[in-house]
Amino acid sequence: MATSTNAALCFFLFLLPLSINAATFQIVNRCSFTVWAAWATTGPRAGGGNRLNSGQSWTININAGATGGRIWARTGCSFDGNGRGSCQTGDCGGVLQCQGYGRPPNTLAEFALNQFNNLDFFDISNVDGYNVGLDFSPTSGGCRGIRCAANIVGECPAQLRAPGGCNNPCTVFGTQQYCCNNGPCDPTDFSRFFKTRCPDAYSYPQDDRTSTVVFTCPGGTNYRVTFCP
Question: Residues of the signal sequence (predicted)?
Answer without folding.
Answer: 1-22
